[in-house]
Amino acid sequence: QVQLVESGGGLVQPGGSLRLSCAASGSIGSIYAMGWYRQAPGKQRESVATITNVGSTNYADSVKGRFTISRDDAKNTVYLQMNSLKAEDTAVYYCNYHRYIPMIDYWGQGTQVTVSS
Questions:
Q1: Within 13 Å of residue 56, how many CA atoms lie on the same side as its CB?
Q2: Short-list 76, 95, 98, CA closest to 20
Q3: What single DSSP character describes residue 89?
Q4: pLDDT tens across 55-74, in order?
Q5: Which residue has the higher pLDDT, 28 or 106?
Q6: How many CB atoms lie within 10 A of CB 110?
Q7: Which tops the pLDDT comparison, 76 or 29?
Q8: Which among 115, 116, 96, 93 is positioned nearest to 106, based on CA atoms?
Q9: Are 105 and 95 in contact (CB under 8 A)?
Q10: pLDDT-above-90 percentage for the chain
Q11: How far apart are CA 88 and CA 9, in angstroms?
Q12: CB count, 10 Å around CB of 88?
């Protein structure tokens, strides 16, 4: 089992910044990826950014150049730095842990990000 605890969501004006954190605990293992997904009202959950255990990253086209995913292995924590936020970034953001073998996913409880003036 892996437990994920997210923090850092909130209300921010367009153009502002927020940093999300996701602390993992439990049977983390050594070969895995972690990432952030989001789900806006009436829309499907989508991948925002992912990072593997060796540091390879992947971003959705809509956030490239604005969001940065990083990790602190000593703290088992993944971060999502979000800059130049737009109204369309408004969503519930979920932290994900993906283990490759055996394949399994764990999800955090979600944190609301609202971009509005």
A1: 5
A2: 95
A3: G
A4: 999 999 999 999 999 999 88
A5: 106
A6: 17
A7: 76
A8: 96
A9: no
A10: 85
A11: 15
A12: 10
